[in-house]
Write a structure and sequence with these properties.
- This protein has 249 residues and is α/β, with parallel strands linked by helices.
- The chain has one domain: 3-Layer(aba) Sandwich (Rossmann fold), CATH 3.40.50.
- 49% of the residues lie in helices and 14% in strands.
- Strand 1, helix 1 and strand 2 form a beta-alpha-beta unit.
- It is globular, with a radius of gyration of 17 Å.
- The chain starts with 6 loop residues before the first strand and ends in an 8-residue tail after the last strand.
- Bound molecules: nicotinamide-adenine-dinucleotide (NAD).
- The site of nicotinamide-adenine-dinucleotide has 28 residues, from helix 1, strand 2 and helix 7.
- It holds the Pfam family adh_short_C2.
- This is SDR family oxidoreductase.
- Keywords: Oxidoreductase.
């Protein structure tokens, strides 16, 4: 098992890609703190994971800065340390630039960029002790500049910038910081597809491997790789877990 005796915080772990990561991490021997705003979904997941490993559910809104320290403290109190931080949760609403409101901007930046930033800082003292790994989430929407996604695209590219900076600043502390940019079939994508069916079809048609990824079997193994010693010489990078859609140079 690649993550034996490692403790991980996974935000947005009750749904979509996050849930796939939680399941895979447990299978690889990690102890997992699932953080999500959706209490009902979290309760359901924990019931389903009964007997499958050491896991706790922390029902907290990551867009509130003060929750970051509490999330790290609760995880360390329960498991005795922290090795891996997966900043996966992100909520956003899509609209053309001229119709994007301050509220839409705040939603995307507070749940995405700022939550990632606050949790990284809250986790830093613990990750420094363990030589930990941080995995943040980017998006092709930011890299390509997809229409109708300005608040989301900007928040995601800011996350990539924070990740590169932290990779440089914290390398001396033994902390690695990488980004995954996924394409996967999740409830979030299903919702987006209903609002923008043409854009959704364009995404599907643009995947060279011919299908949207599965959270647990396509995306989570890449996150396991970044969390494990297999990637010990990799930091500051974005891995495109997108079936070949975007090639970074
Ligand atoms: N699915 C894709 O194809 C795709 C493509 C590009 C990027 N991404 C990125 O991958 C990550 C996961 O995407 P997904 O499709 O699984 O998303 P999703 O919307 O299906 O799930 C997100 C989870 O985060 C939780 N969450 C939302 N706001 C929260 C908050 N304030 N506090 C705590 N938890 C909160 C939700 O309850 C949910 O469980 C996100 O960062 C997303 O932007 C996904």
């Amino acid at each position: 098992m690649k993550l034996s005796n490692r403790t991980a915080i996974i935000t947005g772990g009750a749904g979509g890609i996050g849930q796939g990561i939680v399941r895979r991490f447990l299978a690889e021997g990690a102890k997992v703190a699932v953080v999500d705003i959706d209490q009902a979904q979290g309760d359901k997941l924990l019931a389903d994971l009964e007997g499958k490993g050491e896991v706790i559910f922390i029902a907290k809104d990551i867009s509130k800065a003060e929750n970051a320290a509490a999330i790290v403290a609760e995880t360390v109190a329960r498991f005795g340390g922290l090795d891996i931080l997966v900043n996966n949760a992100h909520a956003s609403k899509q609209a053309p630039i001229m119709e994007t409101t301050q509220e839409m901007w705040d939603l995307s930046f507070n749940t995405g960029t700022m939550a990632t930033f606050h949790l990284m800082r809250a986790a830093y003292p613990e990750l420094k002790k363990t030589g930990g790994s941080i995995i943040n989430f980017g998006s092709g929407a930011g890299i390509k500049g997809l229409p109708n996604q300005v608040a989301y695209a900007a928040a995601k590219e800011a996350i990539r910038a924070i990740s590169r900076t932290a990779a440089n600043e914290w390398a001396a502390d033994g902390i690695r910081v990488n980004v995954v940019s996924p394409v996967a079939l999740t409830p979030g994508i299903v919702q987006w597809a209903k609002a923008f069916p043409d854009a959704y079809q364009e995404v599907v048609d643009g995947v060279p491997l011919g299908r949207l990824g599965d959270p647990e079997t396509d995306i989570a193994p890449i996150v396991v790789f970044l969390a494990s010693d297999d990637s010990q010489y990799l930091t500051g990078q974005t891995l495109m877990a997108d079936g070949g859609t975007i090639k970074l140079y």
